[in-house]
Amino acid sequence: MIKWFADLVIYNWFNFSEGTRLGESVHFFFYDTIKIIVLLSIMIFFISILRSFFPPEKTKKLLSNRGKFVGNFLASALGVVTPFCSCSSVPIFIGFIESGVPLGITFSFLITSPIVNEVALVMLYSLFGWQIGTLYLISGIVVGVVGGIIIGSIGLESEVEEYVYQIQIDDDEIEELSWEQRIEYAKGEVKDIVGRVWKYVLVGIGIGALIHGYAPAEVLAKYAGEGNPLSVIVAVLIGIPLYSNAMGTIPIAQALLDKGVALGTALSFMMATTALSLPEMIILRKVIKPKLIAIFIGVVAVAIIGVGYMFNWVM
């Protein structure tokens, strides 16, 4: 239905020529914008109802006093259904540390949450199929678990700013919501999240449209395809200075795949952009010291690179 409407508007009403670079780019932008915004709104509504059962207070209680491995896995799994953007990193970090959540478990949550939030996962399943979506889900959790375990094993508690341990946050009672309240909450989440991310989605779709219409497939396949052993490393290094959420990078990954870029290379770019963005590191600097930030970047980057090569090998 959406594709038929996009064909009608672009090729019939505006008379763009089908098969030309400009026509294909404009069609890609128009079609993907409608499809992703509609899908995003529907999925946010239903998934927000699910998320209403996991407020931050309950998340902190579930993660407190958990041991290694189990706690890291649980934190990563909760990161999937409890997405937070990088602007929320500071209060989440403080809340977890204050609640007695170990440092490594806290990082498992913070690593997985931006990489595999549930809305982006639904979009991945819809755009790329269940095989790629499932592999991405498993990989994102593995990156969070492994990264958190490594950081927790090094003993870096002294690299957290001292004031974080001194903050006392009231342990508010968790309010049980009615279904009417959950529906209103879900409506509010649709308005809030779509209002915050639509700019990144449009930018991502715009870049994807340019790649789809104008980037030479043979060049991308040569330098970013499976034949280049350094393609994953380059993709991660390019992704780190950028900033976007998973919803904004998915259209870019889709366009790259259409041009012959290797799957692991495209998805490792997505992971690096969402989990290791420069703005997030600047925000995290308020609560952790440069040494821990450097270790965090190094551990997660190596894990993402490993996942990228695994994708290229498996797929």
Describe this structure in words.
This protein is mainly alpha-helical and 315 residues long. It has one domain. The chain is 76% helix and 0% strand. The chain has helices at residues 2-13, 21-51, 56-63, 70-81, 89-98, 103-115, 118-128, 130-154, 162-166, 179-214, 217-224, 231-239, 246-258, 263-275, 278-284, 290-314. Helix 2 (21-51) crosses helix 7, helix 6 crosses helix 14 and helix 12 (231-239) packs parallel to helix 14. It is globular and about 65 Å long. The mean pLDDT is 78.
Structure summarized in a few sentences:
With 315 residues, the chain is mainly alpha-helical.
List the helices and strands and how they pair.
Blueprint: H1 2-13, H2 21-51, H3 56-63, H4 70-81, H5 89-98, H6 103-115, H7 118-128, H8 130-154, H9 162-166, H10 179-214, H11 217-224, H12 231-239, H13 246-258, H14 263-275, H15 278-284, H16 290-314
Helix pairs in contact: 1-2, 2-7, 2-10, 4-6, 4-8, 6-8, 6-14, 7-8, 7-13, 8-16, 10-13, 12-14, 13-14, 14-16
Keywords: Cell membrane, Membrane, Transmembrane, Transmembrane helix
InterPro entries: DUF318, UPF0718_permease
Family: Belongs to the UPF0718 family.
Ranges where pLDDT stays below 50 over 5 or more residues in a row are none
Separation, N- and C-terminal Cα atoms: 30 Å
Q: Give the biggest sheet.
A: none
Mean pLDDT: 78
Class inferred from helices and paired strands: mainly alpha
Report the C-alpha radius of gyration, rounded: 20 Å
Count the domains. 1
Share of helix among residues?
over 70%
Beta-strand proportion = under 5%
How many extended strands? Answer: 0
What is the global morphology?
Answer: globular
| String of helices and strands | HHHHHHHHHHHHHHHH
The number of helical elements comes to 16
Protein name: Permease
Main location: membrane
Membrane topology: Multi-pass membrane protein
Transmembrane segments: 28-50, 71-97, 103-128, 135-156, 197-217, 229-248, 260-279, 291-311
